[in-house]
Specification:
- Two copies of one chain form a homodimer.
- By secondary structure, chain A is α/β, with parallel strands linked by helices.
- Helix content of chain A is 38%, strand content 14%.
- Chains A and B meet through helix 2, helix 3, strand 6 and strand 8 of A and helix 2, helix 3, strand 6 and strand 8 of B.
- Chains A, B: This is Monooxygenase.
- Chains A, B: One of its GO terms (molecular function) is oxidoreductase activity, acting on paired donors, with incorporation or reduction of molecular oxygen.
- Chains A, B: Belongs to the NtaA/SnaA/DszA monooxygenase family.
Chain lengths: 447, 447
């Protein structure tokens, strides 16, 4: 019997996930628009036999370019360039269901899946925030539940589009002059609340059928959506107990929705700050903290918590009278995680900013390679994770250290593949998921 | 003084521009979703020191997959993959102003321009046809004039977005902890008839400032639009006299709009069918014609001419009582060109289908390499063209023959560069166009 193995995803972000990473001597402040930087990261991750790499995204410029590298290349486009620079690794792009049309977006992912020979993944987001809404003709962001209702219809339409060509719709009969079989091409003819989409996709069915579907919202709406559609879930969890509860809940929801619990993989995020000794790891962490500009952190925290500017005291606790999650229309689960973290660990605003600066609410862990591998192993073996979303504080060095020093330990322990191998070629295969059947084709056993 | 030289664009299309090309023994019927096919074409064009390559597009599946390869990879995505497989050649993607939002599309082109180090071009189309409209929530296509009004506002917004970062907005002061200068980032705050776009693009200004702007509609609306925005124009012209008139008219319109006549390059399309002798070229042409399925051609022609199915007689002329161009809401200039071609040359429907099967209204020319070079030289020297849109009937062989046999003649005659050279790096530079100033920066001489 094959032993269950970890799924590792490299979450790439400019010069690293720590907000001050760009200020280190090694960092290139122009890295975020430099293809060579991303090619280097992708190849390091592939050397570490990661399942996939991943880019977050939002269609807006965040508040201030003064604080840290702002803006980002569009992920599907960037990952297409990386597809040609790599051979095996999966390519997961974030794209919004609120600010795209299903026909265009389904087509782009189908294109990436063809060009990468089946390595495309879509991190489905509904995009919080008024800044994004105002770039697309709206004055304010749609309500949270409304965004998720649109996302569900978006997915239904996208699935119809990806299935609009049966796998054998191309006949290619040169002698008869017949290229395709129109009877095997199925226009969606969709008319719904948010979308009307009449015609078939103009791309044949792709190697994976459709991209791996990924989701990362942990609000009630988000978990309901994930249980129905997601094949991999990225999540921010601070303790193994919380992670276990989240894991069990999500698997149970998927089963309740009629799905196989193994067909939804749960990957908590971890920001590993690695040193050859514990002291060195702590020192590395301190160097990053010393580069934080706290005024920026206060500013961001006040926005996340919907507080007026100037409310927070850097050396005091969070205010006691914060509103409940249900009153928040933006990033609900992030809001609750941050408030609970501050209260559980009795952090001052300054300390909270230090913790968030490193991982924005994800588990930050400073330690030796063995300690990082132990933590990963513990979570993996105790029902808290199917794998991890690796979020290096500094890039490329943090990813390089992880691949050179933690990956060999995970391999020795039998927790991670030693090579990609030929039997798993697509991203979905690497995640242990079946290629989805086409909704227009009756399974042979049922005919 | 440097001699004026040709601009050559390779118009790539599946297995070739001839509708029957996919039926030839050499053709791969799955080529249109095969990255290797396009990489091969791009490298052939780069060996021929072409300025650029180009992909047409429409966000819909055309009528029937029975007739010929249907569907296409999304062009921006495909060209991004080709950017990494080439070094010099420009990459022009078609995208619709009717079925995209300015923020997303401006961002994708900015991303491609960064990733390709300044080789991105945008062929701006308004997208005719109800099929496309019905994939985006509309029941019918918007009126021609309405589509062009939206296109003009789309361009204004896109230009604001591409200029929203000044070139020196990134400060990268690590010591002070200041990455960007917010005073040099300018949100468009656009509120117009078709679009509201508040925020700055989340991509810094690109190597070219913005992609080369290309246009191909030759209707009255199309020419007005081209005179205002286009830096290169693709056009279908059947005779050198028509091409000369079109060329003079477009340059005059550009000058009237306050632009330099040299900053709008006119490239007629040509479908060269090449043989080592005239007889061989004709034979090559005949092989293609013999593979046409005429029923398909009748069907397409009836749709183009807005006739009921079954109206046309394969061996008779076009009906005498066709409506004028002004009554057509679709592809106006294509309609007129086809009707005039049939009448001028007194073609039967069968003959017309043969002519259109090769180039869809573009100049089809069967001859020896010298004859092809002569025609190109004649049009180029007599005020009919600044270069050509090369549309091989069969791909890759037609492009290979052109590069191996016509390109050397053009070089010997001093009409085409022999190498790319280091002084022209971006697509806009190759087309002899200046890098546009940022609209937020006052020219130094005026300060």
């Amino acid at each position: 019997m094959t032993r269950r193995q970890l799924h590792l995803n490299a979450f790439l972000m400019n010069t690293g996930h720590h907000e001050a990473s760009w200020r280190l001597p090694e960092s290139d402040p122009y890295a975020h628009v430099d293809l060579a930087h991303y090619v280097r990261l992708a190849r390091i991750a592939e050397r570490g036999t990661f399942d996939s790499l991943f880019l977050a995204d939002g269609p807006q410029l965040w508040s201030s370019a003064g604080q840290r590298p702002a803006g980002a290349l569009e992920p599907i486009t960037l990952l297409t360039a990386l597809a040609t620079a790599t051979e095996h690794i999966g390519l997961i792009a974030t794209a919004s269901t609120s600010y795209n049309s299903p026909y265009n977006l389904a087509r782009k992912f189908a294109t990436l899946d063809h060009l990468s020979a089946g390595r495309a993944g879509w991190n489905i987001v509904t995009t919080a925030g008024a800044e994004a809404a105002r770039n697309f003709g709206l004055d304010a962001e749609p309500a949270h539940a409304e965004r998720y209702a649109r996302a569900a219809e978006f997915l239904d339409v996208a699935l119809k589009l990806w299935d609009s060509w049966e796998d054998d719709a191309i006949v290619a009969d040169k002698a008869a002059g017949v290229w395709g079989d129109d009877a095997k091409i199925h226009p969606p003819r969709h008319r719904g609340r948010f979308f009307s989409v009449e015609g078939a996709l103009n791309v044949p069915r792709t190697p994976q059928g459709y991209p791996l579907l990924v989701q990362a919202g942990s609000s009630e709406d988000g978990k309901r959506f994930a249980a129905r559609y997601a094949e991999a879930v990225f999540t921010a969890q601070q303790t193994v107990e919380d992670a276990r509860a989240f894991y069990a809940d999500l698997k149970a929801r998927a089963v309740a929705a009629g799905r196989d619990a193994d067909h939804i993989k749960v990957l908590p995020g971890i920001v590993p700050v690695i040193g050859s000794t514990e002291a060195e790891a702590r020192a590395n962490e301190r160097v990053l903290e010393d580069h934080i500009v706290h005024a920026h952190g206060v500013d961001r925290l006040e926005r996340l918590l919907h507080l007026d500017p100037g409310t927070l005291d850097l050396d005091g606790p969070l205010p006691a009278d914060l509103p409940p999650e249900s009153a928040i229309e933006g990033a609900k689960s992030r809001y609750t995680l941050v408030v609970e973290l501050a209260r559980r660990e009795r952090l001052t605003v300054r300390q909270l900013i230090g913790r968030l600066g490193g991982g924005r609410g994800h588990l930050t862990f400073a330690g030796t390679p063995d300690q990082v591998a132990d933590t990963i192993g513990l979570w993996f073996e105790s029902g808290a994770a199917d794998g991890f979303n690796i979020m290096p504080a500094v890039l490329p060095s943090g990813l390089e250290t992880f691949v050179d020093h933690v990956v060999p330990i995970l391999r020795t322990r039998g927790l991670l593949r030693t090579e990609y191998g030929d039997h798993h070629r697509t991203l979905r295969e690497r995640y242990g998921l079946p290629r989805p059947a086409n909704q227009h084709v009756i399974a042979p056993a049922l005919v």
